[in-house]
Every structure is written in C-alpha cells, then in structure tokens.
Amino acid sequence: MQLFVVWRFRNGRCSPIARRYRFYHRGIPLKKETGLTPAECGKAPACFIYLDDGLYGGNTILNSLSRWLATAPQQAVVHVVVMALHRGGQYYARTRLETAAKAAGKVIQFNWWRIVELEDRLTCINSADVLRPTKIPDDPFVKEYVDAMQRKPVFRTAGGLGGLQLFSSEDNRSLLEQQLLIKGALIRKKAPMLPVYARPLGNMVLETLGFGSTIVTFRNCPNNAPLAFWAGNPW
C-alpha cells in the first residue's frame, strides 16, 4: 500500500500578499519515518494527503488540488490535514473541489481533518471566532474606507465571545477589533497599491471589512489576518 504525500512548502517568511509554494510527491518522509521507499509499497496509492498549517479562505487548497485533479487517478481518497480550519473557507473549497472532480469525470473523496474549527461564516456572525466589529470606530480613514464600499458592512451584535471562547471578554474583543480596523484602514491609506482584496482586517474576496483570522503560526502569517499583523515596508 503506497501513501503519496502532497506537501505545501513555504518560504518561511511572512510575505505581504502571497507565498510561493511547490508540490512534491515524495518518498523521503516515508522512508525517514518508516524505513520504506515508495517502490516497496506497491504501485497504486491508497490515498493522498494534503498537509498545511491552516485553511482560511479556502483558495490555496482549492487552487492547489484543482491543478492536481488533472493528473489524479479516476478514483482516489484525499485527506486534507490542517491544524485549524475556518468553516466558511472549508465549505467554499469543498463544494468547488467536488464540482471540479465531477466535471473531470473522477470520483474523489475529500476528507477534512483539523484540531480546531473556527466559525467565520457571515450567516453566523454573532457566534464568530474571527474578528467581526460591532460598529465603525470614530476614525476618518475607517469612515473613508466604509463610505467607498459598494456592499456595506454587516456588524456583529455585542456580547458574543464565539463558540471557541477565544476572547476573554466583550470589551477586550471589541478593543482588539476596533484598533486593528483603525490600523488596517491607515495601512490601506498609506499603501494604495495593495490589492483591493487586502482589506483592513485581512484578505477576503467578498467586500467586507476583512477576513479577521487571528490564527498565526511560527511559519505562517496568512494574509487573511489583519493588515497590521503583516503589512509593512516595502508596501
């Protein structure tokens, strides 16, 4: 039985907009951990594993595995393994991958493994585990940014700490949301060449105040986190 690993490598730095990545079908980790080589495990892979630290908006995994589908076998099982996933991003990636696999005439079963699952869906905004402001702060740059939005922001009702209780109190959560929103709007004012999707609270295709994730690891600060976490000179 052969195990193929699809492993995404990053450059180890917090890149302003996107990270370079490459794919490998490797026997090296298998041999290191088990003493076996792919040749000793048979010809047909039992499954494919995609490893990453987190699933945020879902586009990285979607784009990566969509390209893999071109060379994927007619039938396969794919295990997506991450430390943390965001529900909205996982739904987005899952539904589009299933559609792409069907369009390619392939039967691919996608399994999703995680330690932590965060609520980020706008339909569940009052139980969100990501940054979702309750109001617009009294700041000229934030007001300018909001006034230019075609789709006006939806606000969280004050009082909720999210399903995972990541925030210590509503006051502390609101302070964090307000200040990161203020700094994010200031960064956008200073750096007008940032992509439109680089919103004050983090990269997001949908026009909002931002994705708002606070999940950062030692090897990755995603662009879905607030701009204040990662944007800087050179812009």
Description:
The chain is α/β, with parallel strands linked by helices. The protein has two domains: 2-118, Transcription Regulator spoIIAA (2-Layer Sandwich); 122-230, no CATH class. The chain has six helices and nine strands. The strands form three sheets. The chain has a four-stranded parallel β-sheet, with helices on one face. Strands 3-5-7 form a three-stranded parallel β-sheet. The chain has a two-stranded antiparallel sheet with strand order 8-9. Helix 2 packs parallel to helix 3 (87-103). The protein starts with a strand and ends in a 5-residue tail after the last helix. The model is unreliable at 1-26 (pLDDT under 50).
The largest β sheet comes out as:
4 strands, parallel
Q: What is the CATH topology assignment of the largest domain? A: Transcription Regulator spoIIAA
Q: DSSP strand (E) fraction?
A: 15-25%
Counted beta strands: 9
Rg, Å, rounded: 20 Å
Order of helices and strands: EHEEHEEHEEHHEEH
What is this structure, in a nutshell?
By secondary structure, the chain is an alpha/beta fold. It has helices spanning 28-34, 59-68, 87-103, 140-147, 170-190, 227-230; strands spanning 2-7, 45-51, 54-55, 75-81, 84-86, 107-113, 116-118, 198-199, 202-203. Helix 1 (28-34) links the parallel strand 1 (2-7) and strand 2.
Question: Main attributes?
Answer:
29% helix; alpha/beta; elongated; 235 residues; 6 helices; disordered N terminus; Transcription Regulator spoIIAA
